[in-house]
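To: structure desk
From: M.T.
Subject: fold request, one chain
Message: Could you run this one when you get a chance? Sequence is below, nothing fancy, just the single chain.
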Amino acid sequence: MMIDAEAAQLAIVNVGVTGLWNAPGSPRPVDGPIVADRPDHARWLADLDAQPTLEEGRLGLYERFDSELLEGEPVLVGGEEEAGWTRVTAPWQPYDGSDTGYPGYVRTAHLRLVDDAPVGRLPDCGVAPTVDNFLTEARRHIGLGYLWGGISPAGLDCSGLVHYALRRLGVIFARDGGDQYRACDDVPVDEARPGDLYFFAYPGKTIHHVGIVTGPRRILHSPSTGEVVVEEDMPAHRQETLTVIGRIRQLQ
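Reply: Done. Structure tokens follow.
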């Protein structure tokens, strides 16, 4: 259920990083540090990495943890659905054609109600949204560990890398790969250029991966296998699932 933007209250995130969860019951015991009233994002990541398998740690967030919210980020509040949790949408993270942004649940203690917030614009970052600046921002994260749902410089997933790099340039851009493709202009494969986006899908399936073009069949991305952000010649299994290429309209 989406939130009525006209009727919703406004709030901003009052902690460094918090989670946008699928449901109040989604967090596991290992996720305790990030859902505490005073969240500890670094300890949470360390606890995830201490699990016996990736599936019990970072990759186990699949279908539980949808995204992150960063300090100062505005949200539209849809009411407290369960003790300690608030249903929100995140307008800085466009989602599925919604006017209000990415939906989910966030810890109530991580929000502060406000009378006004910059819902439709990001703070002035002082950096022009150019292709070169986009690539520079994305490359800053090479070597960073993969985090399902991550959009902070402490951990990123594939679409989070694209989203966060553009956010750093003052561009509000979709959060998920499928929505990111719909926000782009289509580009023929032989006309791809640095700064475009490669999108990957299995036959008959939706987009499951996105990466940034840095050269002919060369990709900067955050693989979804627990690896780190890497720039490399496109591996064979990626070439086999390359489906479409998009050009980001907001980049100069």
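Reply (cont.): The chain has six helices and 15 strands. Let me know if you need anything else for the meeting.
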